[in-house]
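Practice problem 4.
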C-alpha cells in the first residue's frame, strides 16, 4: 500500500545517559498495516530487545543498515494523537522524559520486559541428529516453548548447538512482552437443569441445596464465592449439587462485574438543584469549563457528583470521578455502583494487573461509562470524555511523588480542554491556589454554605494544653476530652480521635546521656512500635528490637517520647476496653482490612483512633464527638503550606462529627491556641483563613504569586552531592545572566531529611513569576549538568511542589 509506512521513528523505553531518545526503524511488509502513530512496538536496541512508542511515520531511511521493528504490541491499546499531545505537554510542563509521560496512559500491568522464547519448527525429525541436538529438541518439544535464557542456562555447555539449531530454522525464535496481564479466572455457578427437574432431584431435607437453586433462579451465573456467602453454606453443598449434575461450575475470565446495589436516591435540596442546573448547562455548552464547588462538610456535594455523572452519561459522554483514597470513599463508590452497575470501573492499587488491564479495554471501547479512582485514573482512555470530578481537590495526594511529578488537577484540565467538557473541583477547604484562581473568569465559584437539612456544623472547643500542665495534668488527654468521651459512650454514640503519627511514640531517648536512636540508613529517628517490640524507620523500613537499656551509656532510664496511634489506643483501651479500634497504615496493611475495620465501626460504634486517613470522606451518622490529640504537629513542618494544611486537616476531621440527626462536638488539643489555623478552624471560617494567609503568601513571594521549580540531587557520597548541587547552581546562574530579576535562586542546601536509604540529598529551588522561563532555565542547566556529571548524581525535578519537606 502507498500509505503504509516503510520506516518509523520510535521513542525507546530505555534511559540512555539520562535521556530517552528516538531512533529510526524499518517496518516489515507483514506488519505495515498494524503500525500507526502511538503504536507500541518491540525493537532491537544494541544486544537487547526493548519496547517503545511510534511517534512518526516515514517513507525514507535516514541511515544505512537500519534495524527492523520486531513486532507490534497490543494494537488495541495504541495511544492516539490526542494522548501523545497531552504526554508531550506533560513532558514540557514537568521537565520529565516523554517516555515516562506516555507510560502513564498504559495500564500498569502492560509495562514490563521483552522476552525471547524458542519453539521447535514444524515437521522436524530427530532421527539423523546427534545426541546433543536431539536432547535439546526433545526438551523444547516437551515444553512447547522455552524461554531462551532458561534453555541457555540448562544447556550451558551446548550454546553453539543452540545457535546452529536456530540458524537452520529448527529452533524458531519469537518475542513476547511479559505484561503480567493474563486473564484472571473466576469460578461461576450455573443451573444445569430446568427448575422443575432441579426440584425433583433435591430432597426436602436438603434446605441449603434448595436455597442455592432458588438463588440461581434469580441470578444464574453468580460467582461461587458470592453464592456461598448468600446461601450461608460451604463449598461441599455446591459440590453435592455439582455431583448430581444439577449445577455446573465453570471457570471464566473475570470481567470485574458488580451486582447492582440499590441505593436510596435522595431528594435534591434547593441549593443542590441550582448548582446541578448550572453544571448541566455547562455540559451541554460543548466548550471547556471548570468550576470550584466550595461546600461545607456534610453539604451534599456527593449527591451532586452522582447526578452530574448521570447527566453526562445521558448526553453520550464518559465521566471520571477522582478521589484521594478509594478505600475511604466507599459510600461514593457504592452509590455509583448502585446507579450505574457494571458500567463503573473502579481503579485502585488493590486490583490486580489483569483486572486493571481488562478495565482499560472496557473503558476504551465504551463499555465502562464511569471511571472511579485515585490520581492515576485521570489517564483512563475515555474516548468520549465529557466530565472529570475531583473530590477533595485540596489533597496533596493528587500530586505524584515520582516521575513524572504531575498534578492531577492540571492534567485533568488539559484533558477537559481537549474534549471541551467540564471539570468540577470539590472541597470544603479548597487549596489557596485554587480559590485564588476563582477571581478570574476561567474558574467559576459555586457555594454550598449549609449542611443538608440545615443541620448545624459541630461546636468546636479548643483546649489549651499549657493550662492542663499548670493544673497538674501531664496526660496526653485533657480532662475535657476524657469527660466528653465518657459522656459519648454512655449515650451509645461514637467518637473519632485524630493522631497525626502512627506507631507508639516518635522516638526513644536516654534521660541520662541524651542519646536518641536513629536510623542507620536515613537521617531520622526510629519510631517506637511497641506492639511488635521494634523501632522502625518510616522511610526505609529498617527495623531493630527495642533495647532494654541505652546502647551508649547502659542506663535503663530509657523512655519513649511523642504520641502515636498505638499509644493513644493503649491508653484508651485501659479506660474503654474493646470499644477502641485503630485505623492507620499499620492496621490496614492487609487487603480488605480498611473495609473490615470501617464496617466494624459502623456496626458496633465505639472510639476510632486514626491518622490523617480518617479525616476525609467518611460518613458515620452516629459519630457525635471528634477529638484532635495534637493540633500543632503539622505546624512544626518546615513548609510554607504548613498552616494551610493544618487548617484543612482540622476542618475536615471536624466535619466527621454531627453528620446525622444528632449534634456534633469537636475537641482540639493545642499548645498554640492563638494560631490562625486553629482559630479559624474553630469557627469553620474558611474565608477569614484565606484572606489572612493569602496576604502572607504575597508578602513573602510564595504560590500562587510565584512558581517554584525544586531540584533534588541524590548520591551515596555526601561530598559528591554537595559539589554537584553547587555546580548546578553555577549553571543556573550562567543561564539567567541578565535576567536575575526574573528568577530567584534559593540554596543549594541539604534537604530537610538530608539522607534517605543511604543516599544524601541536596536541594536547589527556583522562584519566578514566569514559569515558562524558569522551566527553560532549569532544562538548559540540567542538559549542561549531565554533560559534566553524567548520570552518577540522580536529579529529581518537581515543578510547583505541594510539599517542601
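Answer key:
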Amino acid at each position: 500500500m502507498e500509505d503504509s509506512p516503510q520506516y518509523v521513528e520510535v521513542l525507546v523505553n530505555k534511559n540512555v545517559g539520562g535521556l530517552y531518545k528516538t531512533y529510526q526503524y524499518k517496518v516489515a511488509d507483514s506488519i505495515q498495516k498494524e503500525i500507526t502513530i502511538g503504536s507500541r512496538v518491540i525493537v532491537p536496541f544494541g544486544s537487547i530487545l526493548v519496547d517503545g512508542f511510534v511517534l512518526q511515520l516515514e517513507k525514507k531511511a535516514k541511515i544505512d543498515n537500519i534495524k527492523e521493528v520486531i513486532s507490534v504490541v497490543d494494537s488495541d491499546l495504541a495511544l492516539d494523537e490526542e494522548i501523545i499531545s497531552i504526554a508531550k505537554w506533560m513532558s514540557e510542563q514537568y521537565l520529565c522524559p516523554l517516555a515516562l509521560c506516555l507510560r502513564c496512559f498504559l495500564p500498569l500491568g502492560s509495562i514490563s520486559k521483552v522476552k525471547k522464547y524458542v519453539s521447535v519448527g514444524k515437521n522436524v525429525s530427530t532421527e539423523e541428529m546427534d545426541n546433543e541436538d536431539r536432547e535439546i529438541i526433545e526438551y523444547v518439544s516437551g515444553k512447547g516453548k522455552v524461554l531462551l535464557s532458561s534453555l541457555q542456562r540448562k544447556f550451558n555447555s551446548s550454546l553453539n548447538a543452540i545457535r546452529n539449531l536456530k540458524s537452520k530454522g529448527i529452533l524458531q525464535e519469537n518475542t513476547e512482552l511479559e505484561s503480567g496481564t493474563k486473564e484472571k479466572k473466576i469460578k461461576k455457578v450455573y443451573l444445569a437443569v430446568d427448575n422443575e427437574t432441579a426440584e425433583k432431584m433435591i430432597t426436602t431435607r436438603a434446605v441449603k441445596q434448595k436455597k442455592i437453586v432458588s438463588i440461581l433462579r434469580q441470578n444464574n451465573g453468580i460467582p461461587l464465592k458470592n453464592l456461598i456467602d448468600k446461601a450461608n453454606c460451604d463449598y461441599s453443598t455446591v459440590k453435592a449439587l455439582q455431583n448430581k449434575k444439577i449445577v455446573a461450575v465453570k471457570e471464566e475470565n473475570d470481567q470485574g462485574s458488580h451486582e447492582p446495589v440499590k441505593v436510596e436516591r435522595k431528594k435534591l435540596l434547593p441549593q443542590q438543584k441550582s448548582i446541578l442546573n448550572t453544571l448541566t448547562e455547562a455540559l451541554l455548552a460543548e466548550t471547556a469549563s471548570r468550576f470550584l464547588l466550595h461546600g461545607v462538610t456534610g453539604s451534599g456535594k456527593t449527591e451532586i457528583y452522582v447526578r452530574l455523572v448521570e447527566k453526562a452519561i445521558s448526553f453520550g459522554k464518559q465521566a471520571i470521578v477522582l478521589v484521594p483514597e478509594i478505600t475511604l470513599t466507599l459510600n461514593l463508590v457504592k452509590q455509583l455502583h448502585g446507579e450505574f452497575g457494571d458500567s463503573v470501573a473502579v481503579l485502585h492499587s488493590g486490583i490486580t494487573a489483569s483486572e486493571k488491564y481488562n478495565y482499560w479495554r472496557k473503558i476504551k471501547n465504551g463499555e465502562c461509562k464511569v471511571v472511579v479512582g485515585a490520581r492515576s485514573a485521570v489517564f483512563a482512555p475515555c474516548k468520549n470524555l465529557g466530565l472529570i470530578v475531583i473530590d477533595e481537590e485540596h489533597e496533596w495526594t493528587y500530586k505524584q511523588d515520582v516521575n513524572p511529578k504531575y498534578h492531577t488537577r492540571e492534567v485533568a484540565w488539559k484533558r477537559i480542554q481537549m474534549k471541551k467538557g467540564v471539570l468540577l473541583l470539590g472541597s470544603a477547604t479548597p487549596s489557596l491556589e485554587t480559590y485564588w484562581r476563582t477571581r478570574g473568569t476561567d474558574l467559576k465559584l459555586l457555594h454550598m454554605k449549609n449542611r443538608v437539612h440545615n443541620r448545624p456544623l459541630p461546636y468546636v472547643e479548643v483546649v489549651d494544653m499549657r493550662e492542663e500542665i499548670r493544673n497538674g495534668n501531664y496526660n496526653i488527654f485533657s480532662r475535657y476530652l476524657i469527660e466528653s468521651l465518657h459522656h459519648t459512650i454512655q449515650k451509645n454514640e461514637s467518637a473519632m480521635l485524630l493522631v497525626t503519627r502512627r506507631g507508639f511514640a516518635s522516638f526513644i531517648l536516654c534521660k541520662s546521656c541524651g542519646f536518641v536512636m536513629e536510623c542507620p540508613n536515613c537521617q531520622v529517628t526510629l519510631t517506637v512500635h511497641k506492639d511488635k517490640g521494634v523501632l522502625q524507620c518510616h522511610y526505609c523500613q529498617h527495623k531493630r528490637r527495642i533495647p532494654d537499656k541505652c546502647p551508649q551509656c547502659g542506663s535503663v532510664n530509657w523512655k519513649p517520647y511523642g504520641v502515636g496511634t498505638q499509644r493513644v489506643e493503649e491508653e484508651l483501651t485501659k479506660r474503654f476496653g474493646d470499644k477502641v479500634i485503630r485505623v492507620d497504615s499499620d492496621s490496614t496493611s492487609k487487603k480488605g482490612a480498611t473495609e473490615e475495620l470501617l464496617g466494624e465501626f459502623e456496626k458496633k460504634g465505639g472510639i476510632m483512633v486514626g491518622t490523617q486517613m480518617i479525616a476525609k470522606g467518611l460518613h458515620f451518622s452516629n459519630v457525635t464527638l471528634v477529638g484532635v490529640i495534637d493540633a500543632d504537629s503539622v505546624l512544626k513542618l518546615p513548609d510554607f503550606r504548613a498552616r494551610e494544611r493544618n487548617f484543612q486537616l482540622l476542618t475536615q476531621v471536624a466535619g466527621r462529627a454531627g453528620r446525622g440527626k444528632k449534634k456534633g462536638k469537636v475537641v482540639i488539643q493545642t499548645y498554640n491556641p492563638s494560631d490562625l489555623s486553629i482559630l479559624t478552624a474553630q469557627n469553620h471560617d474558611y474565608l477569614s483563613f484565606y484572606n489572612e494567609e493569602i496576604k502572607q503568601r504575597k508578602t513573602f513571594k510564595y504560590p500562587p504569586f510565584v512558581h517554584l521549580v525544586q531540584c533534588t540531587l541524590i548520591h551515596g557520597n555526601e561530598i559528591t552531592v554537595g559539589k554537584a548541587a553547587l555546580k548546578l547552581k553555577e549553571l543556573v546562574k550562567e543561564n539567567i545572566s541578565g535576567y536575575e530579576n526574573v528568577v530567584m535562586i534559593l540554596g543549594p542546601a541539604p534537604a530537610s531529611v538530608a539522607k534517605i536509604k543511604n543516599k544524601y540529598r541536596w536541594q536547589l529551588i527556583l522562584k519566578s513569576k514566569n514559569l515558562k522561563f524558569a522551566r527553560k532555565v532549569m532544562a538548559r542547566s540540567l542538559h549542561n549538568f549531565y554533560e559534566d556529571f553524567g548520570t552518577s548524581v540522580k536529579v529529581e525535578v518537581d515543578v510547583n511542589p505541594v510539599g517542601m519537606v
